[in-house]
Amino acid sequence: MVLRRRFAQVSTSDEEEDFVAETRSQGHNSRSPVETMEVSLYEESADDETPPEEVKPDDVKPVAVGEPVKVTGRGRWRRTHYRQFEYKDKRYELEDTVLLRQEENIPMPYIAIIKDITKKQDGRMMILGQWFYRQEEAKKKGGGNWEINDPRELFYSFHRNEVPVESVMHKCVVNFVPDHKQFPKRRDNPGFIVQKVYDTVDKKLLNMTDKGYEDAQQHEIDVIVDKSMSRLGDLPDLEPKLFHFI
């Protein structure tokens, strides 16, 4: 069964869906991920006479910050890329980890790392997110879900999809912890925890130290683990398991 990640007030035209398919990053082992995501077309309000002071908070539009990094595409596919944007008086930038709003009937937000920030020709702003998976979202190939060691635990993935900037709720902290280290205590280091990578194609879990990653993927893991450990400090090693022989 294909997992579809859905966002509030989201719909797609056939032309938009064709473009989104081109922006999707390939999953582990350079194959296309099974998941699909719907991207919204936010239409301008029909009430053009609403004075600025009466605009509701949910109607606030995101604003690009700083000079463009680059411009890609042509015609209606032309995109301007930025390092930062502001939305509802909060500033976000590349590599920030954020919570993303889902449909109203799905209470738990998605979690992703911002990998690209773009502005379309019609002024709509989008982010390219690299996704984390909760236990209930990471399905096994034969069915069922993977066990976790802590309710804070997430699975990292190389699955990327584009969503509207309006989906962003706020920043969050995700700590990447090496396989041989203990999880940090919640009171000292709040936030989510990652120790495994979820292969969205083969539906299996991998250790961050496993072999077989592409060079760019392994570098990505190494950088993000080093960044987390510099924030967490020296965590205790896991206690060795004792085996009893009869």
Automatic annotation (TrEMBL):
Biased composition regions of type Polar residues, renumbered to the chain: 23-33
Boundaries of every BAH domain copy: 90-209
Gene Ontology MF terms: chromatin binding
Gene3D superfamilies membership: 2.30.30.490
Disordered, as annotated region: 1-60
PROSITE patterns given in the database record: BAH
Domain of life: Eukaryota
A Pfam entry, by short name: BAH
Protein name: BAH domain-containing protein
Organism: Brassica carinata (Ethiopian mustard)
